[in-house]
Amino acid sequence: METRFSDKLTIAIPCYERYDYFEEAVNSAINQTVRCSVIVVDNGSSHNKFRDYIERLNDNRIKYYRNEKNIGMFGNWNKCYLYSETEYVMILGDDDILNQGFVEEFEKAVSQYDIDIYFSDFVFLYEKTQVRHPYKLIFGSSDIGKIKKKACFEGLSFPTISQCTRRKIMVTHPFMENPHGSNDWLHIYTLDDDLKVYGNDKVLMTYRRHLLNDSSINAITTGATLPVIYWQLYKYYEKDDNVAAQSAKRNAIKRLLINIIKGNFRFREYLMQQNYYADYYRNVIFPQHRYLRFMAYSKAIMCSSKLAYALIKMLK
Fold this sequence. Notes:
Elements: E1 4-15, H1 22-30, E2 34-42, H2 49-57, E3 62-66, H3 73-83, E4 88-91, E5 97-98, H4 102-112, E6 117-126, E7 129-132, E8 140-143, H5 144-154, E9 164-166, H6 167-172, H7 183-188, E10 196-209, H8 214-217, H9 219-237, H10 242-271, H11 276-288, H12 290-297, H13 301-315
Helix pairs in contact: 5-10, 9-10, 9-11, 10-12, 10-13, 11-12
């Protein structure tokens, strides 16, 4: 019996250099109870392993694209949306794994609800051990406005790793490509409030955590971007919902203090750069809170860390 095919979704797999988990990711995308289009977008790797594997599969529903040069992770993600031709697109990490029923569950949801963004629940995978994530997600029907408001009080938590989004949204409002950071979260928390979201509470994806994935390699960089996202939520709600605004502000300061404690010299060096996030610290956050600027730039790391710990306790 031939597997049913969905013409609504493309699973896009961006990749670059690392091949370790690629075959498992691709196989999870094609071995679905309901199949869909799959594309692989190679960000200018120095080898042909990705291309060769796709050619060996000999499946005309899988397409391989290759950039002439590395255009950055988020630049490559934006390419995934441009190359896709379906109404919805999902970015699957080249080290992550989809449950066999992912596409089928997606199809059920979009057939019943008007959805701009769909996501499923997921688990972390550390080597061979699955671990439940700590995030508090909104399942069922929701919208971006509710997700923004929830983030002010309970923290950033949207699972961009299992997100299927209308292609037209991503083409007109693509990821910020530079500098590198938590640009996927920056993107979701700056979308229009009225966009409709549906969350499936079934665990349909496995997010692999290891020393070579982006969140591990760029921990300081991605961590440095989170206070900026919280601060933007604070400014967004400042006039209309002071309670949400102040909660977002406390979260921004708390995350900044954690960066000061954990990042030490590397965080100070990051703040010296000329980029969107560092500029936001210098031009928006620090002028309002000079003590944060002093602590962030202070060379007396131990003193700053102790003060930061004390301030975090006060913010709880």
